[in-house]
Design goal:
By secondary structure, the chain is an all-alpha fold. It has helices at residues 9-14, 48-74. The chain has one domain (9-74). The longest helix is centred in the C-terminal third of the chain and has 27 residues, at 48-74.
Amino acid sequence: MGSARKPYALGAEFGAKRLTRTGAIARGFQPWRGNQFDGWNGGPGYFLHPSIREKGQQLIKEYMDKIERLMSEAFPE
């Protein structure tokens, strides 16, 4: 995120602090919401963090299921 190929990614997720001359938030980003992380139940972010909050438990379960499958293949009983 935020690399030279996609410099807008961090601004899209966390917003922008800088205002343009007209007083609008830079590059059409939402207002800044970074530096407010208070666990996954709330905090910063406009798309990535809300998605993690919404699907976090499902992602953890899928991840752990894959780990269990790999472990059982590597160390069969």
